[in-house]
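note to self — DONT lose this again. spent like an hour looking for the file last time. sequence + predicted structure for the chain T wanted, 71 res
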Amino acid sequence: MLESFYEHYNVDKIKLTLLESFQGYALNEKKGFLELKISEQEVSDVFDSLIDLVTAVRTLMEQGKIEGVRA
C-alpha cells in the first residue's frame, strides 16, 4: 500500500493538493461537500500533520526502516 501510494504521490504533490483543498475551503466561506464546525486553524493543523506524516513515512522508507517497503 505504501509503495503504491509513493509511486503516485510525493511530498510536494501532497502539499499542493492539501493547499488547494484548504484554499477552496477558505475561499468558499467554509462551504463545500461538508459543513465543518471547526476553525480554519484546526483544518490547517490537520493538513500540516498529514504533510508531516507523509514526510516521515518517506524518510523511513528511504532509510529502509519500514520492513518490506522499498524507497
